[in-house]
From TrEMBL, chains A, B:
Keyword tags: DNA-binding, Transcription, Transcription regulation
PROSITE patterns per record: HTH_TETR_2
Domain HTH tetR-type: from-to ranges: 14-74
Feature: DNA-binding region: 37-56
Full protein name: TetR family transcriptional regulator
MF (Gene Ontology): DNA binding
Transmembrane segments: none
Organism expressing this protein natively: Rhizobium lusitanum
Entry annotated with the keyword DNA-binding: yes
Amino acid sequence: MSYRENPRPGGRSARVQAAVHQSVRDMLATMDRADVTIPLIAQRANVTPSTIYRRWGDLQELLADVAASRLQPESEPARIGSARRDLEVWVEQYADEMASGVGRQMLRDVLSAADGANAERCSGYTQHQLAALIARAQKSGEPFPTQAELMDHVISPIIYRILFDQAPGADYVRELIAKVMPQS
Amino acid sequence: MSYRENPRPGGRSARVQAAVHQSVRDMLATMDRADVTIPLIAQRANVTPSTIYRRWGDLQELLADVAASRLQPESEPARIGSARRDLEVWVEQYADEMASGVGRQMLRDVLSAADGANAERCSGYTQHQLAALIARAQKSGEPFPTQAELMDHVISPIIYRILFDQAPGADYVRELIAKVMPQS
DNA sequence: CCACTAACGCAAATTATTTGCTTTTGTTCA
DNA sequence: TGAACAAAAGCAAATAATTTGCGTTAGTGG
């Protein structure tokens, strides 16, 4: 049986993973990304390079794994007022995070890995947050866009701009939301 | 003066670039992507590895450059009938190309390079094609979405799905277009 | 507690990348 | 045209990263 797939909290495998992830985060925060190499990561994490190579394959996969972990939201969308307002606030924060230097880089890391699993993971996180907002609107009976509408017409344009162009502004985000709100 | 930025057609710099690009395309077509290395590319292109390193920096940059070149459209969108029909046909073909294994990989290559110039290049190509369709509609007086609407609500969702999820189908594409067409 | 095995460490072998220096090639100007 | 110049390429040595075989350690299940 594999220790890696679902490693138990205190196990050696989990400790190594935590140390390596931490090491990567530290290094990305303090040094130029081009200087972040597997031997250096290994040294800081007190493991052998071969451990990392065997476990993640290459730097891209490791960075994608770390980035996807960091993109996992820690909490539910904040409760401000109406479901629409909550949505606006959440999306604005989402857009800001993704458009920042770090966010942008994490997006790229996640997408550039050969294994697409981490990209799906990220998209899943976003959908999960949206689902929470939708459930909230349903409970209070407010009209609200569907998840597909939000993904296609709010999230997608934001991410596209970040990836290919420039950062989207706050008013741009609000316009996108206004467009998908029903019976406006 | 630099030979590289705007190399003259017959010059040495252009010959090297062509040979390297061709070599990359051949190798990507025939072998596993993980086995495509700079020394191998150099050998096949009859140049020394250091030439490639000096010129492109690393494999990711080279792949991004080649991918962006391949994503450059060779011709204007086909003229089928109405502007709307032309748009539908063009977008469907665009979506198919991007969703294919090769297209997907080219997208990733373009996005994973540290230098974002090639990503902008790609987005620029798309906008250029759309501009042609818009001009056509204007000339014939047909109602038509703006470029921003097309980028945000047709292109972006397609690319997002390709990058994070699965391939979009032909009917999905037509629905996206139906949604942005004015006075439907 | 013992047997089992996945994951790790170590070190040698291989392969990729960097770099200083030389040579080639194309450009410019007299 | 043809010399002077500059950019890019070649070559080879030095460095760094990656792979791999084998022994060891540490969780797992009986």
